[in-house]
Structures are given as structure tokens and as C-alpha cells.
Amino acid sequence: MPKRLLAFLVPAALTGWFLRGRLAIAVTKKALPKRISADPAGALPDGLHIAICGSGSPIPDEQRGNPCVAVIAGDAIYVVDAGEKASETFNRMQLRPDRIEAVLLTHFHSDHIGGLGSMALQRWVANAASTKLRVLGPTGVDRVVDGYNEAYALDSSYRTAHHGEAIAPSSSAGMTAEPFEFAAGEKSCVVLEEGGLTVTAFEVDHSPATPAVGYRFDYKGRSIVVSGDTVYSDSLVEASTGADLLVHDALSADLLKLVEDASRDAGFLNRAQILVDVTDYHATPAQAADAARNAKVGALALTHVIPPLPIKALEGPYLGDAKERFTGPLWIANDGDLYSLVVGGREVDRTTLFSRGPIG
Question: Are residues 18 and 53 located together in one domain of the fold?
């Protein structure tokens, strides 16, 4: 290339790069105030709203984080499970961490608790929380909380030393455990009653992971149920009876067999056996549909999606005959989903809280 032409092109390229950078800064500067001050949960009509902060499983999935559901009742947010990426997705949905009243754990598998420390940290520093994060769960939740508190103890002390007590108060760092257990012969109990919301925990079957529970949320005549991880469960059907929305885990054994076979062919025999084992403690989409039909719920959303569905055409094989078994609204949940149950209505509306833009 002639030196004169090269001398002309290089400054032109640098100028273009500089102008693009200046334009990007201008666009971001304009978008940031609106983005940071956004409070979509605060603008929602009174009712129950369910934000899916993680619809995946321990199997790596580019489209889905580990299990996490945020239940919005009035102005308060209650988080069910906090898997890896939960706080990141929570923030991407522009939900305010300082609105979190409590986290409710269904059981203690790593994919349901892996993001708990980050969730607590975000709530703590978002607006100088005056209380520790409450974490409710069945027997064993205190061990999980104590472990996280110890793991984050040094981190919390650094942040208080750096930012000061007014920004990162040491007295409210970390979490406090609130374990519950069912009375003898009982399979459910009320674990929260506040602000017009009643939360009932109920037993599910995720053996050998025990105890394991699901949760029902009732608020001003609207109701949703989050199954946690379970096979088809009569106790879940009983607890879900008449609910507006059931959010149920679901695994496709047929699609998972493809992943198992590929793992075995690649020589990953341990992984292949694990994929065989997990089929016996998760419901299939058809079984989740049966539970929804038998409980006479209004709508069904399938989450904890196993295996990943990298292309949309796999959704049909994943569902199988679930839509024939349950004829109400049925969705495969995605990260970012928002299901809204407005007080005084019967409908369940599905939208998304994921926004697009320079920092969306």
C-alpha cells in the first residue's frame, strides 16, 4: 500500500473510532439516569407478580441461570431460591434489591443456593439496609446461612472499612436464618403472614434431597405456587388446588437421553451416569401438566428446564403431550419473564422485564 494512502487511512480510521466512542458515551449518558432510576416493580398494579430470575438447572445453559423466582406482592419482593446468576438477572430485570423482604429456600442443592451470597450483598449495599436478609427454609437452612456468613465475613469487613458505616453498616451485613418444620403428621404450614400476603410451605418429594418444600403465595384473592424440585406429588396438588398459576420444574427424559449418549460417546462416563440419575427426582412436562390439571390451576409455567433448549424447535419435543394433558395457558419459562396476577382479575399475563439499550 502506498505510504501516502496509508497515512491518509490511519488518521481517518482513528477519527472514526474516536467519533463512535464519543457517540457511545453520549447515548449512555442520556440513558443512564432513566435506567438507574427505573423501578418497574413499583409501577406494577396491585397484585401478585412473578419474575423469573433463573429458569435453568445445573447443566450449563447460555440462556438460563440457575433457579430463582422473585414474587412481588404489593411493594415487597420475596425471592424463592437464589441460584448462580440470580442477582445478576435480578438487576438486569431492574428489580430493586432493597425491596427484598426475605429469601425462601426450597432445598439445599447447590443450583438453588449458589447465588445467595451475592443476593444478600446486593440488598445490603443497595440502600444501606438496616436489617440482615431473612432466609427461610426447612431444617438445615441455618447451616447454609452460617456458612455463607462466614465465607463473606472478611468481604463485609473490607466494604465497611472502605465505605463506612453509613453506606455499608456492619450490623446488617449477612443473613439470618429462620428454619421451620412441619408439625407431626402435617405436610404444610404457614411460614409468613405480612402485608396481606400469606406464604404456605408444603412438602414435596425430591429424595434423597430432604427436606424439600414448595411454596404457595396468597395475596388479596390471587395465588401462585412454586414447586421447587419434585416428582409428581400429591401434596403439591393439594397445596396448589385452585391456584391462579403453578410454576413447576420439568425435565424431558427423551431430550436428556441425547445429552447422556453424547457424554458417554465422548468418554465422560461420570457425567453420563449423573444424567441418568437425575431423571428419577424431577417431574416431566407431562407430569407437571397432570399436576396442574388435577389441582385445577389457572395456568402453568415450566421452569428448571432440563436439558437446555438452544433452539426454539426443541420446545415441542420438550413439552411432549403436556398441552393435551393441561389445556390452560402453558408456558416454558424464560429468564426475564414476568407473570402478572392483578387483584380483582382472573387472568395471568406474561410479559418480560428484560429491556434493550446501551446498558440493557
Answer: no
In a domain, 169, yes or no: yes
Q: What is the total count of domains within the chain?
A: 2
CATH of the domain at 99: 3.60.15.10
DSSP track, 197-254: EEEEEEE---TTS-S-EEEEEEETTEEEEE--S-SS-HHHHHHHTT-SEEEEEEE-HH
Tens-place pLDDT, residues 276-321 = 999 999 999 999 999 999 999 999 999 999 999 999 999 999 999 9
| Sheet order of strands, 175-180 included | 175-180, 133-138, 100-104, 76-80, 68-73, 47-54, 337-342, 349-352
The pLDDT confidence band at residue 158, using thresholds 50, 70 and 90, is very high
Average pLDDT score, the chain:
92
Distance CA 8, CA 200 (A): 71
Q: Distance between CA 52 and CA 310 in Å, rounded? A: 18
Q: Which residue is associated with the grid cell 396481606?
A: 196
The kind and range of the H/E element at 249 are: strand 245-251
User: Does 12 share its domain with 117?
Assistant: no
